[in-house]
Fold each of these.
Amino acid sequence: MNHRPDFARWMADIQQRTETALAELLPAATQAPQRLHQAMRYAALGGGKRVRPLLAHAAGHLAGADAARLDRVACAVELVHVYSLVHDDLPCMDDDVLRRGKPTVHVEYDEATALLVGDALQTLAFHVLAEQPVADTAETQLAMLTLLATASGSRGMAGGQAIDLGAVGRQLDRAELEFMHIHKTGALIRAAILLGAHAGAGLNEDEMARLDHYGKQIGLLFQVVDDILDTEADTATLGKTAGKDADQGKPTYVSLLGLGEARRYAEELLADACDTLEPLGERATYLQGLAEYITRRSF
Amino acid sequence: MNHRPDFARWMADIQQRTETALAELLPAATQAPQRLHQAMRYAALGGGKRVRPLLAHAAGHLAGADAARLDRVACAVELVHVYSLVHDDLPCMDDDVLRRGKPTVHVEYDEATALLVGDALQTLAFHVLAEQPVADTAETQLAMLTLLATASGSRGMAGGQAIDLGAVGRQLDRAELEFMHIHKTGALIRAAILLGAHAGAGLNEDEMARLDHYGKQIGLLFQVVDDILDTEADTATLGKTAGKDADQGKPTYVSLLGLGEARRYAEELLADACDTLEPLGERATYLQGLAEYITRRSF
């Protein structure tokens, strides 16, 4: 499905408009404090596959949402994602030097600046989601802010990172690994999809439930494929340090299930995610295409 | 004014209800991930003068706001403040070991946990402000979220910290020092006051302008007094490492103006802040009392 030219064109279009919207929403590099603003732009612009913005736009398309609203929603989620990468790469966390094919923020600038960049990008995410209307009512918009906070905080993404910290060198079973990833990666991916849908007004309860199930499966799929790629690819094509999780004794789907079984699990999640959306018809095409893209991506 | 028994009682009451509200809003230490939640509670509970919550409640009293709403507003601002302290104490920033009379979070736990604690406390601040009604309309609440984000982000508090980083070992003039503090400390203090007022509905444009002027002066006053205390007090009474800014070659009001002139400046700011509120009558008593408390505090 993602080989169809219109899907590829749609993807490139969303990636481009996300880049443009982020460049507009981020403070100018000439505005004081300049070094912080330069570093925020360095972290957020010119890289990344923009998977979360793509998912937000695809879900928003399904719900008939306005594209300008979706740009803000997509940027809010992407800013949370980028902040988490900047902090995750710090020496006291994963201590990584390469991200999206460039030196990480603390390497290019310094640790204190990287800390503040992450902090300020998180603040900007909530700023962007609160500042202008992104839903039909202000009440819905408040619910969206709550949803983003739940997905990002200690019971979501940040909590997943804490579980990850506690897991280094330990043997996790499959249930524990899944619990970690549902928080660390899954929560924000699911939020991207639901926030995109909330920006529109066209979905009934059954459709929202299907979308939510799709979101959960995509969150897991994303991580399983990440673990497979981390095993197979080299650092140059990956744009970040390859094989790192395994080297650090972190559990991965590949270390737990083996490569063959991990691949089969990915195919199973892909099929389930696409099937869930089948009753929604043509409007779900982009979401189904993204599920396939996430599975087949090779960077 | 703050020697009057009813003011002292009011202060103790707000400090107590802020502690109770924070304890309820923070995730339970028994909830997974336990270590992160324990560390968040360690950082946020059982310490601090709760200056920002006091200001939010005092401004809310002026605007006739509901006390339960003000608890949420006060906690949101305090959570931003606490997150900034946890990150500010990290080795890559001020590298401090003592805060509010206890070991800092990265000393008591570890650096990675302290990083995530700060991240998750910031998220919780926005969560708390979005989740339940805290204003008469959802539109006002969105404006309050935007205000908190503006005050906390790269053009507010986090920006002030970046300016501070760039100022170590440099000679700042008074205008530069003021610019730094308006961002680093002033923005969030001013936000506490305005957010408290927005939780009510009783203020006209002139009253809001007076409150905003009061907020600006209080923000500066707070920092001038901090610098004076940092020179005069020892570590035990201060509850944090004394004389640190001067030792690190950071500019302070005392190093710039001398102790006598810094004291005179504090008295000038106090008088101006109280005078501004004079036309508001009895309702402004708590705000005026807090201005005096901030000036006379000796920890």
Note: Residues 205-232 of chain A form the longest helix (28 residues).
Amino acid sequence: MSSMGDKVKIEIFGESHSAAIGATICGLPAGEKIDIDELCAFMERRAPGRDATSTARKEPDRPEFLCGIVDGVLTGAPLTAIIHNSDQHSRDYSDLRVRPRPSHADYAASVRYGGANDIRGGGPFSGRLTAPLCIGGGIALQLLAKRGIYIGAHLASVAGVKDTAFDAVEIDKDTLLSAGKKPFPVLDGAAGEKMREAILSAKADGDSVGGVIECAVIGMPAGHGGPLFEGVEGKISSAMFAIPAVKGIEFGSGFACTEMLGSEHNDPFVYEGEKVVTTTNNSGGIQGGITNGMPIIFRVAMKPTPSILKEQNTVNLETKENTTLLIHGRHDPCVAARAVPAVEAAAALCILDLLEGNN
Amino acid sequence: MSSMGDKVKIEIFGESHSAAIGATICGLPAGEKIDIDELCAFMERRAPGRDATSTARKEPDRPEFLCGIVDGVLTGAPLTAIIHNSDQHSRDYSDLRVRPRPSHADYAASVRYGGANDIRGGGPFSGRLTAPLCIGGGIALQLLAKRGIYIGAHLASVAGVKDTAFDAVEIDKDTLLSAGKKPFPVLDGAAGEKMREAILSAKADGDSVGGVIECAVIGMPAGHGGPLFEGVEGKISSAMFAIPAVKGIEFGSGFACTEMLGSEHNDPFVYEGEKVVTTTNNSGGIQGGITNGMPIIFRVAMKPTPSILKEQNTVNLETKENTTLLIHGRHDPCVAARAVPAVEAAAALCILDLLEGNN
Amino acid sequence: MSSMGDKVKIEIFGESHSAAIGATICGLPAGEKIDIDELCAFMERRAPGRDATSTARKEPDRPEFLCGIVDGVLTGAPLTAIIHNSDQHSRDYSDLRVRPRPSHADYAASVRYGGANDIRGGGPFSGRLTAPLCIGGGIALQLLAKRGIYIGAHLASVAGVKDTAFDAVEIDKDTLLSAGKKPFPVLDGAAGEKMREAILSAKADGDSVGGVIECAVIGMPAGHGGPLFEGVEGKISSAMFAIPAVKGIEFGSGFACTEMLGSEHNDPFVYEGEKVVTTTNNSGGIQGGITNGMPIIFRVAMKPTPSILKEQNTVNLETKENTTLLIHGRHDPCVAARAVPAVEAAAALCILDLLEGNN
Amino acid sequence: MSSMGDKVKIEIFGESHSAAIGATICGLPAGEKIDIDELCAFMERRAPGRDATSTARKEPDRPEFLCGIVDGVLTGAPLTAIIHNSDQHSRDYSDLRVRPRPSHADYAASVRYGGANDIRGGGPFSGRLTAPLCIGGGIALQLLAKRGIYIGAHLASVAGVKDTAFDAVEIDKDTLLSAGKKPFPVLDGAAGEKMREAILSAKADGDSVGGVIECAVIGMPAGHGGPLFEGVEGKISSAMFAIPAVKGIEFGSGFACTEMLGSEHNDPFVYEGEKVVTTTNNSGGIQGGITNGMPIIFRVAMKPTPSILKEQNTVNLETKENTTLLIHGRHDPCVAARAVPAVEAAAALCILDLLEGNN
């Protein structure tokens, strides 16, 4: 379970302060050309320092390809790309083993790994590990675009401030991809300004906020997925929970469906020319675990960054006493913003895997 | 992906009207005694006809063990158990291929399988397939109980009517298991009555309602799971989406976390005797994808049953014209009620897999 | 690892004396018609009592289909078929736990399963478990034949008596399939008679003999498989070792290649019309783990049946003393003969998996 | 299938002339100390230029650790180590696409990858890819040694010249590991000299020779593995076929068992103090797919290096004509010698996976 995918499989490795982080992607189709500049531009979207609301830490996230690609063309062998960890502060992290940060992985990981885990900068639990996810996902996005399948996401809400939602039934490609082209990934700029204010206000207070990311896939043909453990929702959901800070996911109408009547919720079929479509899309493009040709739509909930600059209660695992902790350092007051491309990347890998595996 | 689990693996087979449905579970620990009566009692909880709100269809869901168990003791070889499909109505289902039911799998599956899928009674998409899930899960629940790990669920809401929620920090075993002992699985009987009214009212109108199921795991030790694709949330979520009609899942504070500040959301650590606990449990027992020793808590959203007794718009796939459809037959007006043990079962299999796999 | 295959996956369950044995096969292509009579005829080939050299035990090996097939057409859902265990002798097997039979699984399994394993008739280690393998393999053989791919095997040697070998470069379909049509599966009837004599002679002496099975796949296109862990040899070999009593496998020239010069061993390429072929086939149709379009050829070594009717030295695990053992009952003096269809079945499942998975 | 293992999993990446080759190993036990010098010494054993019989090509095979290890201690996160490809000759390899080398992967791979595969130096099919296998295997060997499990291999034969075989019943650790300490890995130095002569003689003639490698595992407890697809032989065999040039594998008595009587072949049990052992070990330490506590013994057949300096017949894939080919460059006239540590490495990964997975 350290990798994801059946036919197109990604394995992510690295720790926040190890020599490098990276990913190996197997099962990519040989002979396809990858636009490396476009990939790097995609990677840039999750890089910090892109907006005043994100951490000031600079990470040159340009991937270095070790194998699997020659002159930009996929060879069919596993593709491995790495990013060297250069901007590390070599300070002492050992205190985190003694006084675990609330709602971080520190305590759980110390039990899991008997204290041997690399705790510097969060180790393998760092949001930085979404960079290799974006390498694989960025490649997948390009391969999908060649087949007329596009994936886009935006910040649906931050600290309760809501962006315009995607139209579930009809999403044009430009709208879908528009948020990704902005420094702050929203559809509605005015809503985005309010979100930024909320983030900066929390930041000024040493605090943090959460958010919801909405993602859609358009152009996906009907007939992929299956019942039970083959379902598309299960596949996408487990991919999303690989992104740090995700605490929930819902497809289509999601939790709201639990307050609807069947007669309201059912999506009536209708012909649009030769194509079977539905006039509503509460199903989020998936019925019985199988794509039905409508946009796949889902939303993920991201918790407020646990790294806050306020004194917090914790324990001292050495003295076995209760104590307090004050975290220092640079942190994103809202990880949701930078996670938008990670959500697209994880979705793209799932969709490509379904297509390449003929599932 | 037709099976779930790494060390303890379940494979489910069968179609609603095939000769039998069943499951093969591999990796169960040899030598453990299973209480078959207790297992059957668990299975009874998902059987129809238990409450006036569920379908009248009678299914004798007593599993027949083909192998893997001798005198109630697990042999260590794969355990296969089946349930014969006896109460089938041999009516003609071919119309469903021509006029797919809205928000059912009919259309998506016909594309997926080129029309060869067994469409009778929903085929492999039928909620009936949660019966074999409950065989595996019921066994897992017994094995977990021997280790002091208990799993219980209840209807957290139906049609917007809310049950009392579990106390996220401290759940005693009796409360946890209480809903499962009632014909209608709620903690608060009064809330249950209101839910039943909402269901029966929808039923009288030929309509259906959705609901939320809350599930908790207590006694789970800290230190299971891992970052990225090894996370416990991802594992549980993909298991839950294998249950028909699930459209969302959230852990701990879930979607509500997106409107909280980090300072509110973080779970402070404190010593409770020798044990490290948290004073709140917004994390739902999982941090960095790893269990932290607190109760694992999650909620799943279940859509209203798509089978409603009202005329609906759909298409005729033969004539390629728009048409209408009126479904007949016996259906659960709220699938959430009977899905409660299925949620427990899926969770139990995930937890046992983590423990047996030492993950 | 209790199942085999990536896209087309088989899971085998059952124990020699459990209620039933069977298999679930996932990933079979929906809509394909299976000839059940042909499948049963294939199953007959491994059934006992077909030749005087095999055990007299009668097993009605007609599979009962539980799901996944309607009117002989694959539905795309998992196909499960079982065979009830009817001809069991309900004698006491508990002595085998105390005094393990030499070169049987008795001792190793008792350690593995802490003594909880079903020991009756060999439990899951019985050669009887090749029957469900043949269900899956028999279906795979039919699906491959529709694509012009044929698989056949024969007894290449028994007790040192050699059958004619397949011509590695050019195998016509009739020759390939001829052995399978005979009660005793050899190409050369005279050699077969000598083998049968050797078997009956060993049997008369309460002893047993081993043998080599040669198997070939013709019509397989070039370009399936891959380097390292994706290799076709590795895939086929692990499938073969799932057959009880197999102790070795070799592809193409096999062990003989270790005494050849490169200049002798290399297979020169040449055009045969438009098609690239090789003038020798020491590679056995696989180069760099990938099929090259030539016949895939391999041989498996099967040990002499460990069940012999002679007194043998063993231990008493209760008293912890050395002792002796005299096994009674009906046994095949040469399991290789009945294993021929099992070898074809396992190969067919591997090949179909490669094709369906586009690997 | 691009990776191997269930609990301890290795994924190998890289191509002969890509920027780097490497491996990611997941599931290694956190907190264990690795001796990097010892690992490098193990890697040295497969490096070229160690004996006059191997290629003169110099490869500094010192692994660079990217993650998963801090101060020599395993962190529990995936461990990735790479080796930069420095000693590449940047000559033109494009002719290999047009005129494939006999018994190389050139032709099969060009079909598999539509001609997009990296053909330089053999791409992913190069024996060089056994270097990352040895990184993972070298770590596994150290972890196994801490548990009293040792693995050693030697050249059992080269060009028909035979080394002393391991004593199947009783192998002391010193003998087991002795061949690995010599530049030319044999037990019997005199036999080794004859082998070297045969190799140098073939080399002088521009030709190559094959060989057999025998490997043993001592100290392995009884009770690991299982029937059918869980068998230890199947697991080890598929690992061995990942090593380029392997064409066969046999366990215990192997192919010789096919000419033995059951009464000769069966391994009688006897008590050796408190321990159950067998007085012969034709089973090669595995019965019913499960370890029985005796040494695991197997032999792999390696074909003569296909790269020979003689004119060979091949095809021109562009002109579609028959033609000839004369390969230049530096090649091992006998790959078996350098493959000895690769065999140990692959075996070690299998054994560690069984133990860590509690299989």
Note: Residues 3-356 of chain C form a domain with the Chorismate synthase, AroC fold fold (CATH 3.60.150.10).
